[in-house]
Recover the amino acids of this structure.
């Protein structure tokens, strides 16, 4: 099969775009300036046409499907819902979850004595959430997790525990999406 050869008339391209594409650059600057002036006038008049989020005073609303940092769901009594089965640790593609199980005399036989997530390695894929049979680990809407050192990005169980009342929207989304109703 023969390849089709296309000849490009370089002189015609140069004539159309001008030296260094000055015409295209000026056209782009005109569009940008038009939008800037229209938005600036909207703010002056008091009817802005562009939605601006004033961070940190305002919080940008996130959809239920948003995957922020993973957190542990806490029961009403403050204990974790996790039974230390290790499925989230096994499902994590970057091995950022570390669990050491412990035994208890409660109705739940096991609990995570140690539950650590290295947020510097986490890629927010949500596979841990999918693997968990107890809905004990979910992706929250929290995204501000910066630290001054790598050690500050290693989150322990007490830092990860979040009351279920703060995660109701995400838990409902998980139940609907994975058919756990």
């Amino acid at each position: 099969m023969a390849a089709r050869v296309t000849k490009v008339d370089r002189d015609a391209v140069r004539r159309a775009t001008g030296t260094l594409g000055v015409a295209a650059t000026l056209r782009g600057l005109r569009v940008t300036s038009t939008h800037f002036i229209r938005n600036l006038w909207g703010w002056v008049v008091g009817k802005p046409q562009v939605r601006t989020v004033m961070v940190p005073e305002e919080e940008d609303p996130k959809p239920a499907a948003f995957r922020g940092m993973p957190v542990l769901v806490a029961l009403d009594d403050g204990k974790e819902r996790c039974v230390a089965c290790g499925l989230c640790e096994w499902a994590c593609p970057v091995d950022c979850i570390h669990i050491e199980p412990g035994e208890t005399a409660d109705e739940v036989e096991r609990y995570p004595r140690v539950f650590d997530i290295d947020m510097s390695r986490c890629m927010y894929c949500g596979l841990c959430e999918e693997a968990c049979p107890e809905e004990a680990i979910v992706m929250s809407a929290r995204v501000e997790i910066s630290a001054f050192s790598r050690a500050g990005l290693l989150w322990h169980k007490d830092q990860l525990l979040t009351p279920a009342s703060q995660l109701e929207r995400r838990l409902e989304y998980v139940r609907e999406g994975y058919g756990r109703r």
